[in-house]
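Q: Got a minute? One more chain.
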Amino acid sequence: MRIVFYLLVAAVAALVTWLLSILILRLSTRYRLYPKIRERDVHTRPTPRLGGVAMFLGVLVAFGAAALVPQLRAVFSDSTQLLTILLAALIVVVIGVIDDIWDLDWVTKLAGQLIAAGILAFGGTQVQYLPFGDIVVFSPFNSLLYTVIAVVLVMNAVNFIDGLDGLVAGVAIIANGVFFVYTYLQQSGGNLDYYNLAALVTAILVGACIGLLPTNFHPAKMFMGDAGALLVGLLMAVSGISVTGAIDPIRVQAGQIGHSDVLAAFIPVILPVAILVVPLLDFGLAVLRRLRAGKSPFSADRKHLHHRLLDMGHSHLHAVLIFYAWTAVASIGVLSFLFMPWWGSLTFLLVGFVVTTIVTLSPLSKRKRTEAAAQLAETHDDVADATIARLDPLDAAAGAPGDAAGSVGADAAPSRLQKKEASS
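A: Always. Here it is, folded:
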């Protein structure tokens, strides 16, 4: 019945976050604590960005509530590790709040993230060894280095996709919900020492995201901002890293670990990547795109995956739901390897990815049909040309292989209407 206590702690995080989000929303609106709309923003009116503050306070209260539950007190046996996790969370939230209100330069933000990640690593949350064939045991320096890189990478990957209402909150609920199921299943198998912290962190994070969602879902009244996105990324990294040492390397090398346990040992490595597949993909494409253009990898633009979905013709809500679907398929599919035959899990992943791909690309097929119908309407040339002109941004969204978003501007390919005007 341990799950009841996790659910109660998650409910505390959700309730506190929800109440504080309403309070912070009112204060932000009254005192105009929100920045001006930027060129890359999707929303059209100034919106408060301090939802991350409500989430952080909800997380703090939930940890306090968990400390009062005897069944969860094992998490608090290492007070140093827990305090460094909360301190690192405080640092990224403060950095995020300052950036949400006044816009920090990328060097300062990255420095704050590195400090937070370093505090985490020094506090004991480290990647100590990984099950790659034989167990790879890292030296203290490498363990520290890889931990800092992983934490900063995850924080920025999550932050990069925070561009649509409810996107990060919903993705985090799905991803951490699946990860919680994994950690709870491992606890049921007797692996309490390694999975207590991960289970508690994921439960609290899911609760905080649920609490923010009523004010953050489309149309959003308030955003979680960089403070919230960095907090989500930090806690997701903590939960993933904390279970990378779930299998004793000495027992593996001695042949004392069975097949199912070895498979379980790989899941902490694969599952965090699977649940972050969309943010990591967006992050990688953004970094390559900006470096190729001679810009900083942290410079802002309007070519993220969520922007591209909008340019393809998806509505705001549909774009968010597509991200949810990709996250669910990847995370549930990987988790299913624990309790399904390998071919069943692969089938689920294949079918899921095919369906989500079809849904993702559906506006382009609709555009082709509409454009073809307009071209056949020879007696209504003005209507046809207007229809094709309206669909030109979709042509651009499906454009050059070098830029999956195409170019919805001066670089876009000329439409039939433009060609007609040029010829006349």
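A: The longest helix spans residues 342-376.
Q: Perfect, thanks.
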